[in-house]
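Hey L., structure's done. Input below.
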Amino acid sequence: MLFLLLKYLQPTHYLQLGKKDGSSVFPLPEKLPSEILDKLSPDFGYKSEQARAYDLSWQAINKGYIGTAETYTSFKKLPLEDEYRFIRKFFHPAWAFYVLLIRLFSFNNPINEITAFKKSYNTVRSNYLKQPIVYKNWFSFDSKLVSNKPLVSVVIPTLNRYEYLKDVLKDFEQQTYKHFEILIIDQSKPFQEDFCKGFNLNIRHIQQSEPALWLARNSAIKKSKGTIIALSEDDVRIEPDWLENHLRCLDFFKADISAGVFYPEGSSVPKERSFFAVASQFATGNAMLYKSVFEKIGLFDRQFEKQRMGDGEFGLRAYLNGYKSVSNPYASCIDVKAATGGLRQMGSWDAFRPKKLFAPRPIPSVLYFFRKYFGRKRAVLALFKSVPLSIIPYRYKKNKKMLILGALISVFLLPFIIIQVIISWRLASKKLRDGEMIERLDVRGER
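Output:
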């Protein structure tokens, strides 16, 4: 990791891990093109030159650098005051105080910690993301991939959402890119056999008796005819150029995965996701990738069945294996958030907010994912950061005052929360003992 203290704020972030070949995503500043360096701001407030270099590398990736510059393979220890300066510069001031508390309760030298914390006190919060890197050639890019018209297989699992699915299919009828098939894996009861007959689309409507999301996606991928897979959902809305912009992104960046962006109905693409960047997340509701990725690293892990983070696990697996994934703001979609059906009906819509007092918090698959890839200590750090904030309802997650209130309430609910976490930890331990359930995709596929 670039900065040691990042482990407290991003304990289970993709980019915290090195890839299997030993590389990272963070470029050596001296290897960056001059036109990229010109868009970065050196910070001479750091005590060490190494921290200044790491800061530039952080800026480059977060501002949207996607290139082939040589990357760091290891990171050196920095002065503690530089660590706190970095946290104050790129995160809300409250998080610097949070890190200090965690460090003190972890029996680090209190004099060193408080001294470094005070020395960084005058650090000004950076607004560097207001000027992201812009790829001007994107707008005039003539994609050979689009011209070659590869068959795209669109995968849509559905469960009791025919009214929402109808709107999605109408959007697909309007696509500017026409060479695609749609595989609908329908788990609805009652099953409407004739539902898809009224659409001017190449649809394969497949009934699945078991309500199982990851089984549905895996089955569709195995049955797909295309060399490229597009992943969508039954409660989103897409623009007419959704497929085309995913394809253009794969071609423009020579990427393996185009990771689209969601935004709530009535809103717009979030500012922090409004530009191209190395993707730090993967969502199966809006993505496109070459089918060969599944052939190399396997399908979705069914240990996440009826639970959360199966797409996150796949995205991390792809990252570790060196596949290039690009966050693509031009392939955005509206997240309608249907009130019924889907994972809501299966009982696990939210990963950290159980509906019952003695239900596991978080959902066991979350801890399975954290512990499998990041280890026990990082999983515990993730719990410290996420569980107190989960006390407040999801709709208030961007309200800072309500999040602080949630942290305070969690103190009074601590005995119940501890029981919920222990239940989750034990269930995750069983998943780890049982091992992953990742089926390999036969290169011949299932037609």
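Residues 136-343 form a domain with the Spore Coat Polysaccharide Biosynthesis Protein SpsA; Chain A fold (CATH 3.90.550.10). The longest strand covers residues 325-335.

-- N.
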